[in-house]
Design brief:
The chain has about 425 residues and is an alpha/beta fold. It contains 17 helices and 15 strands. It folds into two domains: about 250 residues, Aspartate Aminotransferase, domain 2, CATH 3.40.640; about 130 residues, Aspartate Aminotransferase, domain 1. The chain is about 45% helix and about 15% strand. Bound molecules: pyridoxal-5'-phosphate. Pyridoxal-5'-phosphate (PLP) binds next to helix 5.
C-alpha cells in the first residue's frame, strides 16, 4: 500500500512541505535541495541493515553490499577533499565534532576556537553543550568586523599562553576566507593539531572555489554533508595520516589520526551507521565530483557576491561589507533599526526564508539578536542567477521598509510565489512526489 493511502494525514503534511519548498525562496545558508538520485538513495532497503564496524571489519554478517557502498563513499570523499582518510559514518555535524574532539583530547584539554558571536558554531563549545563540560574552550576573534580579517596575532598569543591541543577553525556565520596556512603554522608552533569544521563550505571547497585546508597544513576537517555539499543529512570526518586497524587502539600520534577518528566514531559515540544515508552520501559525492558541480559552486559564490552588493546598495549593513563564500550576515539594527527576529518574520510573510542571527559582540541576546543570516546555496540549485539576486535584494528592501503594512506584504507574497514557481526543484522533474 502506498504512503498516500496508508497514512493520508501524514501524507498531507508531506504535500504541504513540498508546496512550501516550491513556493518560497530558501535563503537559509545551511539548506539546499538534494537531487532525485540522493532522495532515492535515502529511501532504500539499506535502512534495514546493521553494519557496526567498518568495511571488511564488521560485527555482523551480510555485509557484501554495505562494504562496497561505504568503501565507494570513502574513496569518493578522499578524492573530493584530497585527504588520506574519510569516516563517512557520523550521523550529523554535531556528532562528527564530538568524535573529532574526543579522538585527540583527554577530558579537561583545551580547544582554541573562533568566538561564537564572530561566526563560530554552537558545537564549538557553547556553554550549554556537553562539549563545554568536557573541554576548556578559549577564543579568537576578527580583528576588524569591517573587513572580517581574523586577529592572527591574538590567535597566536592565546595559543602560546593557553597551549591548546586543538586549534579549531570553522564557522556557521562568517563570510570570509581564512588564512589556513597561518592557522596551521600557529597550531604546529604549540604542538596542537589544526582542525577545520568545513560544514558550511564543504561544497565550495569540493567545487574548487574556496581553498582546501588540507592544501595548507591542516590535519583534520569535520563537516556536514547536507549544506553546500548537497547530500543527505549527515556528517563526515576527513584526516591526514595512515589508516590502521580500527579494532586496535593506536598511540595518540598525528599519523594515527585515521584510526583514532574511526574508533572515536564507533564505538566512541555511535552505534551502527545509517547505511541508507551512507549510500546517499556515496551518490552525493559522485555528483560533487562532476564538472557541473564545480559550475554550481562557482555560481553560488557569484550569486552571493551579487546579492551582497545589491543589499548594500539598498542600505543593508553587511558584517565585513561583503562575502567571499555563500553567506551574508546583516546588522539589521544599524541598517533599519529593526531586530533580526522582526526581519525574519516580515520576510517570512512574503515567502523569503532566512534566520535571525547574532552579529559580532551583539549587544542583544541570541534569541532576539541584531542580525539576520542568509545565503545562496538553495536558490542557486534552483537555477537562479545574478539578475534574480537583484530581485531578491529589492524584495527584501521593500518588505523591511513596509514592515507594518500587511496589505502590501500580502501583495508581495503573491509576487514572490509567482516568480518562484518558474524555478523548478530537482524533485519536480522526477515524476515522483517526494
Ligand atoms: C559549522 C557547523 N558545524 C556543525 C554543525 C552541526 O551540524 P548538524 O546540524 O548536522 O549536527 C553545523 C550546523 O549548522 C555547522 O554550521
Amino acid at each position: 500500500m502506498s504512503l498516500r493511502t496508508s497514512e493520508p494525514d501524514l501524507y498531507r503534511l508531506l504535500e504541504g512541505e513540498i508546496t512550501r519548498q516550491r513556493e518560497g525562496i530558501e535563503l537559509i545558508p545551511s539548506e539546499n535541495y538534494v537531487s532525485v538520485a540522493v532522495l532515492e538513495a535515502m529511501g532504500t532497503v539499506f535502512t534495514n541493515k546493521y553494519s557496526e564496524g567498518f568495511p571488511r571489519k564488521r560485527y555482523y554478517g551480510g555485509q557484501e553490499f554495505t562494504d562496497q557502498i561505504e568503501q565507494i563513499a570513502i574513496d569518493r570523499a578522499k578524492k573530493l577533499f584530497r585527504c588520506d582518510h574519510a569516516n563517512v559514518q557520523p550521523y550529523s555535524g554535531a556528532i562528527a565534532n564530538m568524535a573529532a574532539f574526543s579522538s585527540w583530547l583527554e577530558l579537561g584539554d583545551t580547544i582554541l576556537g573562533m568566538d561564537l558571536s564572530h561566526g563560530g558554531h554552537l558545537t564549538h563549545g557553547h556553554p550549554l553543550t556537553l562539549m563545554a563540560t568536557m573541554y576548556r574552550f578559549v577564543r579568537y576573534k576578527m580583528k576588524d568586523t569591517e573587513t572580517g580579517e581574523i586577529d592572527y596575532d591574538q590567535l597566536r598569543a592565546v595559543a602560546k599562553k593557553e597551549r591548546p591541543k586543538i586549534v579549531l577553525a570553522g564557522f556557521s556565520a562568517y563570510p570570509r576566507e581564512l588564512n589556513y596556512a597561518r592557522i596551521a603554522e600557529i597550531a604546529k608552533e604549540v604542538d596542537a593539531i589544526a582542525v577545520m569544521d568545513i560544514a558550511h563550505i564543504a561544497g565550495l571547497i569540493a567545487g574548487g572555489v574556496l581553498e582546501n585546508p588540507f592544501d595548507h597544513g591542516f590535519d583534520m576537517c569535520t563537516t556536514t554533508t547536507h549544506k553546500t555539499l548537497r547530500g543527505p543529512r549527515g556528517g563526515m570526518i576527513l584526516t591526514r595520516g595512515i589508516a590502521g586497524n580500527p579494532l586496535k587502539q593506536p598511540e595518540k600520534k598525528r599519523e594515527n589520526l585515521p584510526t583514532l577518528v574511526d574508533r572515536a566514531v564507533f564505538p566512541g559515540v555511535q552505534g551502527g551507521p545509517i547505511m541508507n544515508i551512507v549510500f546517499a552520501k556515496a551518490v552525493a559525492f559522485g555528483e560533487a565530483l562532476q564538472p557541473e558541480f564545480a559550475e554550481y559552486a562557482r555560481q553560488v559564490v557569484k550569486n552571493a557576491k551579487h546579492l551582497a552588493k545589491h543589499l548594500m546598495k539598498r542600505g543593508f549593513k553587511l558584517i565585513t561589507n561583503g562575502t567571499d563564500n555563500h553567506l551574508m550576515l546583516v546588522d539589521m539594527m544599524s541598517s533599519f533599526q529593526m531586530k533580526g527576529k522582526q526581519a525574519e518574520s516580515v520576510l517570512d510573510q512574503i515567502g523569503l526564508t532566512l534566520n535571525k542571527n547574532v552579529i559580532p559582540d551583539d549587544p542583544l541576546p541570541p534569541y532576539d539578536p541584531s542580525g539576520i543570516r542568509l545565503g545562496t546555496p538553495a536558490v542557486t540549485t534552483r537555477g537562479m542567477k545574478e539578475q534574480d539576486m537583484e530581485t531578491i535584494a529589492d524584495w527584501m528592501y521593500r518588505a523591511v521598509t513596509h514592515a507594518n503594512d500587511s496589505t502590501y506584504l500580502t501583495k508581495m507574497s503573491a509576487e514572490v510565489r509567482e516568480y518562484c514557481i518558474r524555478f523548478k526543484l530537482p524533485s519536480d522533474s522526477s515524476g515522483s512526489d517526494v
